[in-house]
Amino acid sequence: MTKLINAETGEIILAELELARTFWKRFVGLMFRKSLPSGCGIWIEPCKSVHTMWMRISIDVHFLDSDNSIIGVSKNVRPWRVVLAPVNATSVLEIQSSTIEIPVNTRVETV
Fold first, then answer.
1. Comparing C-alpha atoms, which of 71, 101, 103, 99 is closest to residue 85?
2. Residues 51, 75: contact at Cβ < 8 Å?
3. pLDDT tens digits for 76-99?
4. Strands 49-51 and 40-44
5. What 3-state class would DSSP assign to 74?
6. 1 C-beta neighbours (distance < 10 Å), count
7. pTM of the model
8. Measured between alpha carbons, how far apart are the two ends of the chain, in Å?
9. Which of 12, 19, 48, 84 would you label with 27, given CA atoms 20 to 30 Å apart?
10. Helix (H/G/I), strand (E/B), else coil: 25
11. Is the peptide bond before 103 cis (omega within 30 degrees of 0)?
12. Exposed/middle/buried for 46, CB within 10 Å: 0-12, 13-18, 19+?
């Protein structure tokens, strides 16, 4: 299973990370899921905006640049919303709302 870590400290941020890098995985994302356990998330790449249509949970959306640094966060995005990414965003990390704080400027990587 893929994990998300802080690239500077090596600290595990998410113990279970799903990578959505194919068209189908990016398209489905978290739609129709009844829950997303704490410590789990999905990294959608490439991605410039997200929607929460057909979702049942609220999420925190972290926007990353090409260096995998967090450049923006939209917290508590409820179902049936659209969120546009900052200009330099290349990917998006989605996690359950209000479970984990990842500060802006944190660089992340997978292991």
1. 71
2. no
3. 999 999 999 999 999 999 999 989
4. unpaired
5. strand
6. 7
7. 0.92
8. 9
9. 12
10. helix
11. no
12. exposed
Q: Among 72, 73, 27, 70, which residue's Cα sits nearest to residue 46?
A: 27
Contact of 51 with 81, CB cutoff 8 Å: yes
Q: Where do we find the tokens 């068209």?
A: 23
| DSSP-assigned letter for residue 85 | P
Question: Which pair of structure tokens corresponds to residue 19?
Answer: 């990578």
With beta carbons less than 8 A apart as the criterion, state whether 54 and 33 touch: no
SS3 33: coil
30-39: long-range contacts (C-beta < 8 A, 24 or more apart)?
Answer: 30/55, 30/57, 30/59, 30/94, 31/55, 32/56, 33/57, 35/96, 36/95, 36/96, 37/96, 38/96, 38/99, 38/100, 39/14, 39/15, 39/99, 39/100
Over residues 51-60, the pLDDT tens digits come to: 999 888 999 9
Q: How many angstroms separate the CA atoms of 94 and 79, rounded? A: 13
**Residues 46, 38: Cα–Cα separation, whole Å:** 24
| Domains detected in the chain | 2-110 (2.60.120.1140)
Nearest Cα to 14, choosing from 93, 103, 105?
A: 93
